[in-house]
Batch of 2 targets.
Target 1
Amino acid sequence: MRPTINVVAAALLLPLGAAQNTTSSTNTTTSTSEAILSSGEVSLGDWADAYAKAAALVAQLTNEEKITIITGGSVSSVNWTALEFKDGTQSVQGMAVYGSTSRTSLTETGYDYVTGFAESSALAMTWDKTLMYDQLKAVALEFYGKGFQVTNGPTSQPLGRTPWGGRLVETLGQDPYLNGIGFGIGAKAFSDAGIVAGGKHFLLNEQETNRQASGSDSDLAPYSSVADDKTMHETYLWSFYDGVKGGMGAVMCAMTKVNGTLSCENEDLLQGLLKTELGFPGLVFPDVGGQTNAFESANGGLDYGSSTYWTNATLQAGIDNGTFTQARLDDMAVRNVIGYFKVGLDNGTQPEYVGSDAYVDVRGNHSTIVRTNGAASLVLLKNTNNALPLSKPKSMALFGSHAGPVMAGPNYYFSVQGSGPTYEGHLAGGSGSGQTSFPYLITPQQALTTKASLDGTMIRWILNNTYTSSTDSGSGGFGGMTGNTTSGTAPSGNGTAPSLSKRAGGAAIAGLSGGTSLTQDIPDYATGAEVCMVFINALSGEGADRTELRNTDQDDLVSTVAENCNNTIVVVNTVGARLLDAWIENDNITAVVYGGLVGQESGNSLADVLYGDVNPSGRLPHTIAKNESDYNVEICETAVCNFTEGNYIDYRYFDKYNVTPRYEFGYGLSYTTFDYSDLTVNITNSTALASTYPTGGLAVGGKTDLWDEVISASVTVANNGTVDGNEVSQLYVEYPTAADQPVRQLRGFERTLISSGSSATVTFSVRRRDVSFWDVAAQEWAIASGNYVFSVGASSRDLRVSQTVTVGT
Ligand SMILES: *[C@@H]1O[C@H](CO)[C@@H](O)[C@H](O)[C@H]1NC(C)=O
Ligand SMILES: *[C@@H]1O[C@H](CO)[C@@H](O)[C@H](O)[C@H]1NC(C)=O
Ligand SMILES: *[C@@H]1O[C@H](CO)[C@@H](O)[C@H](O)[C@H]1NC(C)=O
Ligand SMILES: *[C@@H]1O[C@H](CO)[C@@H](O)[C@H](O)[C@H]1NC(C)=O
Ligand SMILES: *[C@@H]1O[C@H](CO)[C@@H](O)[C@H](O)[C@H]1NC(C)=O
Ligand SMILES: *[C@@H]1O[C@H](CO)[C@@H](O)[C@H](O)[C@H]1NC(C)=O
Ligand SMILES: *[C@@H]1O[C@H](CO)[C@@H](O)[C@H](O)[C@H]1NC(C)=O
Ligand SMILES: *[C@@H]1O[C@H](CO)[C@@H](O)[C@H](O)[C@H]1NC(C)=O
Ligand SMILES: *[C@@H]1O[C@H](CO)[C@@H](O)[C@H](O)[C@H]1NC(C)=O
Ligand SMILES: *[C@@H]1O[C@H](CO)[C@@H](O)[C@H](O)[C@H]1NC(C)=O
Ligand SMILES: *[C@@H]1O[C@H](CO)[C@@H](O)[C@H](O)[C@H]1NC(C)=O
Ligand SMILES: *[C@@H]1O[C@H](CO)[C@@H](O)[C@H](O)[C@H]1NC(C)=O
């Protein structure tokens, strides 16, 4: 049973039992008063009703019952059932269960009858707020239908301080603004579906190496991140503002340390930044091993923790001797239940919690979202000689293990302590907490074979990155044949011998005409095909960082095909930035399609783009460098990780230091072309801009006026090509020097469908926060006086129109 408490009924019950009056509790001496919800210093806005219900429920509890709730227990006297937590923003993930089950018992490997959605990093490549909302709401509805109340997601961070970070597949891109928009949308979508969004990881948990004290990482673990206050706000805390504003009811603090203190026991981080500055009203819960101490965690701001530390006796003794406070305990209990009421989980309609193999099908028509979003996320990086879209090619050859299924799938087992660097099969989901529960998986080979069967295309494949004819010479094992081919007899059974004609340099096909060796090989297949498709991937995930940003076997495969085929199309699916310079300038490589891990419809999404059923519009959420050394931040190998680069990660670094990328942040081609004209930028709230600092009160999401529009920009975008298409228009802002900001920063994006020959007016609403910098001395977001340059274009380095606006004197 879930509590069906309402405020009036609860108030009537207050005199009964050992009720505590939360609003009359004394202020804690160890925490800022704002971090206690009952202090009233954070205006709760649309959380007020939920707060009233939560406070009323808690008011009926004894301290032991409150402790039961904050340690994940149920209290039958008020019908409170422990919340069920679950990983997965890409599907209901099976690796870990909080709540009644210990998270460390990894007994499940996947949920059944759920959808395998695109990873968040792929979703970010759509640059489409509606698609983000649609997918994340569908994800949350599946959690709801399985009886979960809290997701360990969405994931904002690791943000991507370094491209070698192992876990970027789970995040919403490497730009704080893009990431923040997606994170806020995720928090809202989850809440709208009746699920408490548990955003993670808070904060500066930017790499896997030396992450986990309890694991085998190293005696340097967990590492301690140190970022100055300006960087903290402008790069890392930024997206959590959006998450809190979007309705996030829970936050997962990281395993790692900030300034030498564990994140889950760090008062500056949790009570200060999160609960006070951002006005976060929900509960903070720990990543594995994040809690090590009773009072440092409780006073530091952790609200949900282990009964090993938070025993009745210990916490009560702490209250009695002043180490801990009644107000803080009450606040913890309120924060544990407030999100439940906020998202309406008390309305009595949620289905019962079910285990991973129950036949409870929650998928609805979500596969259409997966296919649509997958196609919308794919980024066309190169397209010459009209290679794409394909039009009934006569012959096609597929190369690489990533084109087809892994031998046993689709729910392959990935270790949480490191996977990769590549995957020998089609990769459409991540690992660790980013692991997908696939009900099925459409591979490119399957989707392209279906197309071929309809188009009359002859299709063949070599689903191996390193196959050479000599490898298997004379021993069969190729094309399904198993006989002794040197004997001159046909293999047993009819096999599936490819009916290929002889290629340049090739010999007769063994087993078919008494030949003596197998010579079909990658060059041979490449020579004979009108279209050569090479499939490559990059894999990493929770528990280990990336060891490479390119892969020799795969790059050799691409080069070998390209040497023999003047129409080589490369498809990349990757967890993060993947370097392409080994072959990108080869003229025989006519097209490159680059994407994240896009879920169960991967092959169909790809085919939609390759054949032009969908005009590609995906954009890079990170910079693809020419060389590894072009990136400025590597994996930190010491106990203290100093973020000395400050705000200068990804394109902010490339722009400041004039490093030319291979493909810049925001880049992506279309099958049509767009013109930009008539940019107009208007100050819409000059009164607000006249004030250096925000004047609004503290509310959920920070000072209220940080969210107010102050400037509006609009631009005309014309599709002057021959096909309809979506254009992702991007607004970048250059601040006055006094603000000490990167060269330019993304501050708006809109994906707009524009038909061939038509134009559209695209409008960007710029909020006060979008033109503010963090004033360390004032400890406020501030507006610098001076000239702001607003530019709109198709990428961070393809700015088409710009206008300067003067703010202040
Ligand atoms: C709680 O305490 C406040 C402040 O002392 C008081 O106004 C309020 O009536 C009390 N509420 C209950 C239910 O006792
Ligand atoms: C808590 O502290 C705040 C700020 O100092 C004050 O306004 C409020 O009245 C205090 N609340 C209680 C219950 O003492
Ligand atoms: C708890 O649920 C039961 C069964 O629905 C109900 O009879 C009881 O009144 C509820 N108790 C409270 C305190 O809400
Ligand atoms: C209860 O909440 C869920 C999730 O928001 C919603 O779908 C459902 O319609 C609500 N039920 C009622 C009776 O309001
Ligand atoms: C961590 O320390 C740095 C350097 O001393 C300081 O600038 C920053 O504000 C501190 N951050 C937190 C969250 O305390
Ligand atoms: C606290 O006491 C309650 C009631 O006796 C008990 O059910 C619960 O398990 C205890 N919690 C802890 C963390 O010891
Ligand atoms: C208060 O009690 C707690 C729990 O027993 C204990 O850990 C702590 O040292 C005590 N503090 C003081 C100041 O006595
Ligand atoms: C690919 O081919 C190589 C060389 O024949 C072989 O060692 C490897 O096992 C094959 N990989 C797969 C996934 O079949
Ligand atoms: C294949 O057949 C030849 C000729 O009969 C024989 O010498 C050789 O040992 C056979 N090889 C294998 C692997 O069976
Ligand atoms: C092999 O193919 C031939 C011709 O299609 C057929 O007659 C024969 O039955 C097949 N043999 C086997 C073992 O499938
Ligand atoms: C391009 O492909 C053709 C075969 O179509 C080959 O002759 C040529 O050498 C290739 N060029 C490169 C640069 O690999
Ligand atoms: C690619 O090679 C094919 C076959 O050799 C040839 O017909 C075609 O013209 C070549 N295309 C280009 C762009 O060189």
Target 2
Amino acid sequence: MVTMPPEPPPPALKLEIDREALAGNWRALDRLSGSAAAGAAVKADGYGVGAQVVVPVLREAGCRNFFVAHWTELAEVAGLTDPAGLSVLHGPLTAADAAFAKALGVKPVINSVGQARLWLQAGGGACDLMVDSGINRLGLPMAELGDEAVQQLQVDVLMSHLASADEDVALNERQRGRWEEARSQVRHCRASLANSAGIALGSGYHGDLTRPGLSLYGGVPRQELGPHIRQVARPMAAIMQVRDIASGDSVGYNATFTARGPMRVATIALGYADGYLRCWSGKGMLRSQGRPLPVLGRVSMDMTVIDLAAAPDLREGDWVEADYDLAEAATASGLSQYELLTLLGRRFGRDR
Ligand SMILES: *Cc1c(COP(=O)(O)O)cnc(C)c1O
């Protein structure tokens, strides 16, 4: 006979979400957006933080415009906010996508003449329009702004996306100019250009709506944002085993660390399958009440070994926190701040 399994106990791995910091980051970015309102990119499960956690917090803070990438991502966020304020960045690739948008009442972001036609064939209605002003990735080419189907669209937000907003390069101003040009050629209600970094480029980049993602979750893509942004996500892992090792003993796969004297070490339930990649081998830092607990040897799939010299009192079941200030962690690991967030895996408990 098959019976329902009992609720599993809480995992030995959790992502602590600082909701105050998240709301504070949105309010800061909204303020820095001047007369424009700040929306929120919540694609990729809220950059790995958990869309179901972040959308209600951002709504409560005052956010009304949310962006996901895939149609499948609507499952997590529809029902948490007004569908009319939800945009799907990839737009409709098939008639089924367009019909799905109509059924839910969310806005597709139209990225091409083909997508414009699909949307009109599905019955049209409010949509957003992405114009490619120089990133050459996804978006309507400038040369096709005058297309008949495009001109028939009922465009709420006319947007474009900056390729290098985190750098001071001439491309930013060139893209801004093309975005202004697009605004003069297509009827629309609101205009949007800036991601997190773009917000720091000044009022000329703000339009009516900004689209921060990274900085909501604690990322600092430009120094100007540093004083306004606080860390949101804190990876925590429980100690599964404590052991004392002797001089000459090695730790982990391929024995890349060898003790030079007697040591107390601990094994924690955090590994590369959780997004704590092998680049942290011999390099990452965990902490207990501020006390540093360096990673020893290789990070394994489900486990990492740390040095307990600074906290010999720690025992099985105690929790430690990984250093995960995004700007610092990116410099230390070689991963981007975006990767550090979106890597965080499904085994993390994320309290709802
Ligand atoms: C992801 C994304 C954003 C958010 O960018 P950040 O750099 O994370 O602030 C904004 N606009 C579009 C079109 C995006 O795809």
